[in-house]
Design brief:
Elements (H helix, E strand, L loop, with lengths): L1 E7 L2 H12 L4 E10 L8 E10 L31 H19 L8 H9 L4 H8 L2 H4 L5 H15 L14 E6 L6 H15 L4 E6 L4 H14 L3 E3 L3 H10 L5 E6 L7 H11 L6 E7 L4 H11 L6 E5 L8 H9 L3 E6 L8 E3 L2 H8 L3
Parallel strand pairs: 4-7, 4-8, 5-6, 5-7, 8-9, 9-10
Antiparallel strand pairs: 1-3, 2-3, 10-11
Helix pairs in contact: 3-4, 6-13, 7-8, 11-12
Bound molecules: guanosine-5'-triphosphate and magnesium ion.
Length: 365
C-alpha cells in the first residue's frame, strides 16, 4: 500500500501526477485547496493538494501497472503474506459505499432520463418517480419529448385522482377535525371552509375550537366566527367536545379546530387522539404546509398517523417552490387529498385539489 500527497497549482495537473505515479487504479483519499505564500493566507497563490493511495504503484517509466486489488473482497490471507492493513479495509468500505450510492443514483443516461430529471428537480422521490415512469417506454416513443411528457402528465393526473373534499350529507350532521403541526394554517383554512360552506353553499355550519393552550388562537377563530356569522364553541376536554357535538346535531357541518402539536411530543398527540375518539365518525384532515421538506413532512405524517387522518390538506402552495412533498406523501400513505390553500386571504384562497393543476406543478421546468 502506497499513500502519497501531490501538490499542484491545478486539480487537473495534480490528478495527472496521481495517474502517472500511482496508476489508474489509485484511490483519492482527500483533496483540499490552500494558499501558498502571502501573508496570513492573503495574496497567496491558490494550490491544490491531493492525497491518493494505491496498493501497487507502477513506475513513472511506464511499466505495466500491477492488476488492481479488489478492495471489496480482501484476498484471503496467504501464509506469510502480510495482513491487510486498516487503510485497506477502510478503502474497501469506501468503495462499497460508493458502489451503493452509485447503485441508488438515478440512471439519467437511460431513455427516460430527462423525465426522471424533471421529476427529481421538483423533489419527487426516486421511488415515486420510478413508479410513475415504469414501463413508460412501452406506451410512448421516448425520443419524442413532448409526447412522452404528455403521457407522464396523464399518469400524474391519474395518481392525483384520489381527491375528495368534504361531502356534507343531505341529512344529519358531519364533524370534520383539522389536525397538524403549529402554524401550518389550520385556523385560517377552517375560516375559509366555514365561509365557503355557510355563505356560498348555504349549509348550517358551526365551529368548535378544541384549542386548549392559547387564548390568542381561540380569539382568532372567534373573530372569524363573528365576521362569517357562524356560531363557535370552545372546548377544553374530550367530554366537552362530545357534549358540543351532541348540541350541534342540527348543524350540517361542524368544523373542529385543534391546537398545533409538535410531532415530537407523544403526549400532545395522544391527547389530540383522545379528542378525536369521542365520536366514531369525525372525519380528520391532516393539515400540512407544502413548504415543509419531504423528510420532515414524512415524520409529521407518521407521528400524526396514530390519529388516523383520512385526508391530507396542503396549505401555502403559493409559497412552495414545488409540490414534490405532496406526491411523495400521497404515495406513502393511504390518505386522499382534500383541499389546497394558496394564500392568506379568507375566504378566497382555497380550492378543491385539482389533479391537472398539480400535475402541471409537478412537471414545472
Ligand atoms: N402564504 C400563505 N399563508 C397562509 C396560508 N394559510 C395560512 N397562512 C398563514 O399562516 C399563518 C398561520 O396560520 P394559522 O391559521 O394561524 O395556523 P394554525 O395551523 O392554526 O396555527 P396554530 O393554531 O398555531 O397551530 C398565518 O399568518 C396565515 O395567514 C396559505 O395558504 N398561504
Ligand atoms: Mg390555529
Amino acid at each position: 500500500m502506497k499513500v502519497k500527497v501531490f501538490t499542484s497549482a491545478t486539480m487537473q495537473d495534480a490528478m495527472n501526477q496521481v495517474k502517472q505515479e500511482l496508476g489508474r487504479d489509485a484511490v483519492i483519499l482527500q483533496t483540499r485547496r490552500f494558499k501558498k505564500g502571502g501573508f496570513l493566507g492573503w495574496w497567496g497563490k491558490e494550490m491544490v493538494e491531493v492525497m491518493a493511495a494505491t496498493d501497487s504503484a507502477p513506475a513513472a517509466t511506464g511499466r505495466k501497472p500491477a492488476p488492481p486489488v479488489d478492495y471489496v473482497q480482501p484476498p484471503p490471507p496467504v501464509e506469510n503474506s502480510p495482513k491487510p492493513s486498516a487503510l485497506q479495509f477502510e478503502l474497501a468500505g469506501m468503495r462499497k459505499m460508493l458502489e451503493q450510492v452509485l447503485h441508488k443514483m438515478p440512471q439519467t443516461g437511460s431513455r427516460n432520463g430527462p423525465l426522471l430529471d424533471l421529476l427529481m428537480k421538483n423533489d419527487v422521490e426516486l421511488a415515486v418517480a420510478e413508479s410513475l415512469l415504469s414501463d413508460i417506454g412501452d406506451s410512448v416513443d421516448l425520443t419524442d419529448p413532448l409526447t412522452a411528457q404528455g403521457v407522464l402528465r396523464e399518469r400524474i393526473v391519474e395518481f392525483f385522482k384520489r381527491v375528495e373534499g368534504i361531502n356534507v350529507p343531505a341529512a344529519g350532521s358531519k364533524a370534520v377535525a383539522f389536525i397538524g403541526p403549529t402554524g401550518v394554517g389550520k385556523t385560517t383554512t377552517i375560516a375559509k371552509l366555514a365561509a365557503h360552506f355557510s355563505i356560498i353553499k348555504g349549509y348550517k355550519v358551526a365551529m368548535v375550537a378544541a384549542d386548549t393552550y392559547r387564548i390568542s388562537a381561540v380569539e382568532q377563530l372567534k373573530t372569524y366566527s363573528d365576521i362569517i356569522g357562524v356560531p363557535i364553541d370552545i372546548v377544553y376536554s374530550p367530554a366537552e367536545l362530545k357534549a358540543v357535538l351532541a348540541k350541534n346535531q342540527d348543524k350540517q357541518l361542524i368544523l373542529i379546530d385543534t391546537t398545533g402539536r409538535s410531532p415530537r411530543n407523544h403526549y400532545q398527540i395522544a391527547e389530540l387522539k383522545a379528542f378525536l375518539e369521542v365520536a366514531p365518525d369525525i372525519e380528520t384532515h391532516l393539515v400540512l404546509s407544502t413548504t415543509t421538506k419531504y423528510k420532515d413532512a414524512l415524520d409529521i405524517a407518521t407521528k400524526f398517523s396514530v390519529c388516523s387522518p383520512q385526508k391530507f390538506l396542503f396549505t401555502k402552495v403559493d409559497e412552495a417552490s414545488n409540490v414534490g412533498t405532496m406526491i411523495n406523501l400521497l404515495h406513502q400513505f393511504p390518505a386522499t387529498l382534500s383541499y389546497i390553500t394558496n394564500g392568506q386571504a379568507v375566504p378566497d384562497d382555497i380550492e378543491l385539489a385539482d389533479p391537472r393543476k398539480l400535475a402541471e406543478l409537478i412537471l414545472r421546468d
